[in-house]
Amino acid sequence: MTALFALATSLLWGLADFGGGLLTRRTPALTVVLVSQVIASVVLGVIVVATGGWSEAGGQLSFAVAAGAVGPVAMLSFYKALALGPMGVVSPLGSLGVAVPVAVGLIAGERPGLLQFAGVAVAVAGIVMAGGPQLRGAPVQRRAVLLTLVAAFGFGAVMSLIAEASTTVTGLFLALFVQRVTNTAVGGLALCVSLRRGGRALPEGGGVAAVRAALPALAFVGLADVAANGTYSIAAQNGPVTVAAVLASLYPVVTALAARGFLGERLRGVQAAGAGLALVGTVLLATG
User: Fold this and answer.
1) Cβ neighbour number for residue 67 with a 10 Å cutoff
2) Contact residues for 140 (Cβ-Cβ < 8 A; gap 6+)
3) pTM for the whole thing?
4) How confident is the model at residue 131, as a pLDDT?
5) Average of per-residue pLDDT across 136-150
């Protein structure tokens, strides 16, 4: 069950990142994040009311609040790092956030078997390579590296926090709702600050009509991200966190393959090799 839900997480996150990447080509990133999270919050609010999730309110929701506060900061840091570039360095470094939940699992006393340790090493190498690491060429700014490491730590922290936010299905719906509401509040504050500094909230030339036309895609991004958080929480609660975290972090492979399938982008040799290594690591983790 752990492997199944963790792989579902990587699929959902990978597709959400692919959709978000396409949307940010036309719409400011903060607007994409904010609108997608608002839609997710509304849907989750309805589910919480329908399932009676409010009865699960308790101290564990502080983990959901923390995850909701850290998430937008990590995403914003990642987008800024991508803007500074080069993307061939930033993208693979961002995937190193998997080290956070793996470390948490080891500190908590998890001891994967020899095959699983090998699977972790192989899969993580594949994840980094799937991002198409740039080993030479354009220089890398120190600020880009620092922002990427902040983002990576944030992504890993969200994985660890959301796994601790609930122990039941209805509680998970409530935790995800609280996380999204916090995401929305932090994202809205960031957008206000951006506007005060001269940034823009709407696509150039399209305005509100362009955002309205993109609502189905924005809804998909927000709901896929929510579903990924939910499946990861289930995976982490039903098996070793070290295994769940690595398998869930295969999403860069999914994003690269989606770009290949939908946009016709050619995979670089290092990305194809990374996808192969990630598959080998997955097999080792699942059978170990």
Assistant:
1) 27
2) 86, 89
3) 0.85
4) 67
5) 74
